[in-house]
Amino acid sequence: MTIHVVGTDEGKDYLNGNVILDALCALNQKFAHANLQFFIKDDFNYINNSLLFVHDKVTFPKVPALFAKYNVSGTVNIYFVRDPMGACGYNYMPGGKSMGIVLSNDCTNGKDANWAHEMGHYLSLPHTFMAGKWKRRILPNLPPCYQNGGGS
Ligand SMILES: [Zn+2]
């Protein structure tokens, strides 16, 4: 994965890197039972772009060009922003091929399934029931995160 940490045009309000590592740990915990683990390629890529940092349905048409500009090919491109169209996140997949997973800073932490949810969509998993959210099954006896290859 390539981790894009988006801030304002002035370079402010990046999500803290430790929060991202905690969230990565939670992501890998949730996929461990499927024998899937995700790794960060190279350093975080810091982007100063207020349009990407906060976008909505009106400004979204300008966003795919930014994916095209910043994406690193051969990796899953993850963008952390303040407000991805009023959601906790989305996976933008025109024509069935992902151009990027965009996650809300406010929904990113070391316990919730937000990143795992969008990664599931990246892997072409649909929602499992009608309610519009994945059923969040509690998995028993997960190993502690820091023995599990994630985090620092
Ligand atoms: Zn979903």
User: Radius of gyration from the CA trace?
Assistant: 15 Å
Strand order of the largest sheet: 2-1-4-7-6
For the secondary structure, the number of strands is 7
Order of helices and strands: EHEHEHEEEEH
Bound small-molecule species: zinc ion
pLDDT average, as an integer? 87
Which parts are unreliable, with pLDDT below 50 for 5 consecutive residues or more?
130-144, 146-152
Shape: globular
Helix content: 10-25%
β-strand percent reads 15-25%
Largest sheet: 5 strands, mixed
Structural class given helices, strands, pairing? Answer: alpha/beta
Cα end-to-end separation? 16 Å
Count of discrete alpha- or pi-helical segments spanning 4 or more residues: 4
Number of structural domains:
1
